Amino acid sequence: MILHTVPKLFQMLYPERIWKKSADDNTIYLTFDDGPVPGVTDYVLQELAKRNQQATFFVVGDNVRKNPTLAHEIIKAGHKLGNHTFNHINGWKTANSEYLENIELCDKTLQDVLSIKTKIFRPPYGLIKSNQVVEVSKCYDIVMWTMLSGDYDQRIKPEVVLRKSIKHTSEGSIAVFHDQLKTKALLPKILPQYLDYIQELGWKTGVL
């Protein structure tokens, strides 16, 4: 079962992580995890460009290494990049030293390939140990989410993903989608409608 939104009590238990932004200026924060992946990330960029919308891409370092041109396209389009580890590893299942080294490797890749240094990090699967948080927080803002679309779960029908995504989106929301192979077939069925919904309500999109 996917929790499309994080209970407020849970958010209060982990205040050192960013769950939502201010709703004062009617801005939504679109985020895409796991790319860049050819055939998926470029599709997302096209849909955002059609509507002049911005997003933050939490990239996997190894995918940046494999697809440097596509990673450059994200930056060229005015979007922002965040660290999502080099190998998309689960913090709960990884020794602290290995986890931190993997984050550093992603950081080095972004600097070497793209000449950028990011200050934002999202743990893959949203899973990170408290002692890892202490160390990661020294260099990064740890960004979680308000709305998790569930687009990666192929058991969920597209119309359900879209409905749940809209239901749990409000001003200041940090919305999560994925630009990876698992979502390649689904994104065209949900992303245009979701982006249109945001636009029709007059909400702006911003980067983190």
SSE order and pairing:
Blueprint: H1 8-13, E1 27-33, H2 41-50, E2 56-59, H3 61-66, H4 68-76, E3 80-83, H5 96-114, E4 120-121, H6 130-136, E5 141-142, E6 147-148, H7 158-167, E7 174-178, H8 187-200, E8 204-205
Parallel strand pairs: 1-2, 1-7, 1-8, 2-3, 4-5, 6-7
Structure explained in plain terms:
The protein has 208 residues and is α/β, with parallel strands linked by helices. The chain has helices spanning 8-13, 41-50, 61-66, 68-76, 96-114, 130-136, 158-167, 187-200; strands at 27-33, 56-59, 80-83, 120-121, 141-142, 147-148, 174-178, 204-205. Helices cover 39% and strands 13% of the residues. The mean pLDDT is 95.
Features:
six-stranded parallel beta sheet, 8 helices, single chain, 208 residues, globular, alpha/beta
Structural class: alpha/beta
| Biggest sheet details | 6 strands, parallel
Terminal CA distance reads 28 Å
Q: In sequence order, what are the helices and strands, one letter per element?
A: HEHEHHEHEHEEHEHE
Work out the strand percent: 5-15%
Count the strands?
A: 8
Runs in which pLDDT lies below 50 for 5 or more consecutive residues are: none
Shape: globular
Estimate the mean pLDDT confidence.
95
Number of helices: 8
Q: What integer value in Å does the Rg equal?
A: 16 Å
- Helicity range: 25-40%
Provide a compact summary of the structure.
This protein is an alpha/beta fold and about 210 residues long. Helices cover about 40% and strands about 15% of the residues.
